Amino acid sequence: MISQNAIDALRKTEIGARGLFINGAQTDGTEGATLPVISPIDGRPFASIADGNAADIDRAVKSAREAFDKGSWSRSAPAFRKKVLVRLAELIEKHADELAVLGVRDNGTEIGMAYKAEPLSAAGTIRYYAEAIDKIYGEIAPTADNVLGLIHKEPLGVVGVIVPWNFPLMIGAWKIAPALAAGNCVVVKPPEIASLTLLRLAELASEAGLPAGVLNVVTGRGAVTGEALGLHMDVDAIAFTGSGPVGRRLLEYSARSNLKRVFLELGGKSPNIVFADAPGLKQAAVVSANGIFRNSGQVCVAGSRLLVQASVYDRFMAELLSATTRLKVGDPLDLSSDVGAVSSAEQLDKNLGFVARAAAEGARLVTGGERILAETGGSYMAPTIFENVTQGMQLAREEVFGPVLGVMRFETEEEAVRLANSTVYGLASAVWTANLSTAHRMVRAINAGVVHVNTYGGADITVPLGGVKQSGFGRDKSLHALEKYFDLKTAWIAL
After folding, report:
1. Which CATH code of 3.40.309.10, 1.10.10.10, 3.30.470.20, 1.10.357.10 fits the domain covering 271-459?
2. Please, are residues 196 and 346 in contact by the beta-carbon 8 Å criterion?
3. Angle of CA points 405, 434, 460, to nearest 5°
4. Three-state SS for 378?
5. Which of 76, 378, 51, 353 has its CA nearest to residue 225?
6. Candidates 3.40.605.10, 3.40.630.30, 3.40.50.10800, 3.40.50.12780; correct CATH number of 4-266+472-492?
């Protein structure tokens, strides 16, 4: 684990101006424009990034296409790709302190969470796909004796990756690692408010021996660079994590351009269901509080809708309030902070707008609901709980992506299922019960890509993450994620 002394030293590091990363080197944007990097810790700029444009995306895509066609990566032996990616994982671990602090300065995640979720998770993900790739086989079809049918797995070509600002390194690795392992070349569009760790990742990849052009990073505004990547005629696929409206635009861009494949992991409004027989109400309350309030609620799978069975409602709410008020919100680079900053002033304003709307619609504020630590200049918000929430309220229907929890009570299992599924989303969920039959019935009944049982979060790289309904249809993590970065080619051979 990182030490406070290391954190305090690294937070003073001068970052300066960062350019784009194209064809194995840092380069200025075509127009030379820049964007300030403002830390949510104190509201002050501490670096700048290139404000890329469509011409920069075109440069990056051309670099990736040339590298792909050259074949030094795409046609290399899987064992070679494995060696380079393992070396990259080792370099990320070597620079974990630097990467963790850099990311926290950028997006405000508390350092204790960021250290594990960003560099260490990214290194583990890259190592996982590196170790897997030389164990992936093609197939021989069950044909007649006079025919040999072979099914080859080939890389797609150029893959565009667009990631959000909450965990850019972790989520970036979920997409970059399998795409590279499969032999593709990649163009990454990082979030404009959290680009620094992905730029550093590209530098480390070059140091690890990744050929020039195989991994490119173009920073800038999503409305400009993201659109250019989505519309580019020489991009073969887009892997995206983010909001539903942007996901819809990417599908439109695919239709308007070359019908590129689009893999979407979108938002959630995940139900966290506590039955009366939950094993250990106190522990369930602690985990549930962390499941919505860690990283200031800026987690796509956050348990933002809490459903509690009526017979234990009062007891559970008392435990939940106790667990919530014990959370220390503060400087995310202080190891004693349980919750860090909201990612930006804009996101904080959006969160407070949800609070005002919930109160206006009749929900009862239990705790929080306000900006705190304003004297720091940073974007901090008290963990917020509303009860008496009904399904028609905005708070029950729309993703806040902030530390705001809506609580409902239910009487029966059937009512819990109805409430859980009465949303356009279907990303994650949780069920707390000591009854094995109840648990299995709920796993089957809840419309979500992930159902936690007697826990919330923690699923590792071995299982897929993705949703149903308007949470999208992309799948990250596990060996299944490799499938979307391959093309299948049939060889039908008369003998």
Report:
1. 3.40.309.10
2. no
3. 65
4. coil
5. 51
6. 3.40.605.10
| Cα–Cα distance, 433 to 430 (Å, whole number) | 10
CA 456/CA 278 separation, integer angstroms: 13
Q: Is 93 one of the catalytic residues?
A: no
The residue among 345, 455, 459 whose CA lies nearest residue 402 is 345
Give the start-to-end residue ranges of the domains of the chain: 4-266+472-492, 271-459
pLDDT score recorded for residue 110: 98
306 beta partners: 272, 407
The answer to whether 327 and 338 are in contact (CB under 8 A) is yes
Helix residue spans in 141-280 (DSSP H): 168-181, 196-208, 227-231, 244-256
Whether the Cβ atoms of residue 299 and residue 399 lie closer than 8 Å to each other = no
Angle (nearest 5°) at CA 176 between 464 and 271: 35
| Tokens 């919330």 sit on residue | 456
What's the pLDDT at 203?
Answer: 98
User: What is the model's pLDDT at position 351?
Assistant: 98
Task: Output the CA–CA distances (angstroms, integers) from residue 59 to 28, 62, 212, 416, 425, in the order listed.
Answer: 12, 5, 13, 52, 37
> Are residues 39 and 8 in contact, defined by beta-carbon separation less than 8 angstroms?
no
Q: Amino acid letter at 296? A: S
| Category of 23 on φ-ψ map: left (φ > 0), alpha (ψ -120 to 50) or beta | left
CA distances from 160 to 176, 189, 248, 300, 475 (A): 9, 7, 16, 21, 15
Catalytic residue from among 118, 192, 227, 265: 265
The residues, any chain, with a CB within 8 Å of residue 42's CB and separated by 6 or more, are 376, 377, 378
Q: Report pTM.
A: 0.97
Q: What is the pLDDT of residue 168?
A: 98
Report the alpha-carbon distance of residue 402 to residue 440 in Å, rounded.
30
Same fold flag, 4-266+472-492 and 271-459: no
140-167 core/surface letters (b: 16 or more CB in 10 A; e: else)? eeeeeeeeeeeeebebbbbbbbbbbbbb
pLDDT along the chain (495 residues), means of 10: 97 96 97 97 98 98 98 98 98 98 98 98 98 97 98 98 98 98 98 97 98 98 97 98 97 98 97 97 98 98 98 98 98 98 98 98 98 98 98 97 98 98 98 98 98 96 98 96 98 98
Sign of CA dihedral 315, 112, 35, 228: negative
